[in-house]
Amino acid sequence: MQKFHIKRGDPVIVISGSHRGKEGKVLEILPAGTRARVEGLAMVKRHLRKSQENPQGAITEREGSIHVSNLMLKTRYDARKSRKGGAAAPKA
């Protein structure tokens, strides 16, 4: 079993890729592809066939997956930002 630096429910920030800088909460970890679903990010359209719930069928939006290497815990990201920002002296 693989071990990841994030787990379900953690607040994360995307550090690389097309969704860089966006943040959300981890909904699910997909260990087979080393990916995760993050709330509100990488939205994809899903076509649903006709059923009793959707008599006409439907096109719904749901979260796609993002590779875990592109995600960082929000607490670690904030700590890194404050360390970089606080260490620099203002130029005179």
How far apart the termini lie comes to 54 Å
> Topology as H/E string?
EEEEEEEH
Instruction: Please report which band the strand proportion falls in: under 5%, 5-15%, 15-25%, 25-35%, 35-45% or over 45%.
Output: 35-45%
Radius of gyration: 18 Å
Global shape: elongated
The strands making up the biggest β-sheet line up spatially as 6-3-2-1-7
Walk me through the structure.
- The protein is an alpha+beta fold and 92 residues long.
- It has 1 helix and 7 strands; from the N terminus they run βββββββα.
- The protein has one helix spanning 74-87; strands at 11-14, 23-30, 35-38, 43-48, 58-63, 65-67, 71-73.
- The strands form 2 sheets. It has a 5-stranded antiparallel sheet.
- A hairpin with a 4-residue loop joins strand 2 (23-30) and strand 3.
- The protein is elongated.
- The termini are far apart.
- The model has no long low-confidence stretch (mean pLDDT 89).
Lay out the secondary structure.
Blueprint lengths: L10 E4 L8 E8 L4 E4 L4 E6 L9 E6 L1 E3 L3 E3 H14 L5
Antiparallel strand pairs: 1-2, 1-7, 2-3, 3-6, 4-5
Key terms:
single chain, 92 residues, alpha+beta, 5-stranded antiparallel beta sheet, two-stranded antiparallel sheet, 1 helix, 15% helix, elongated
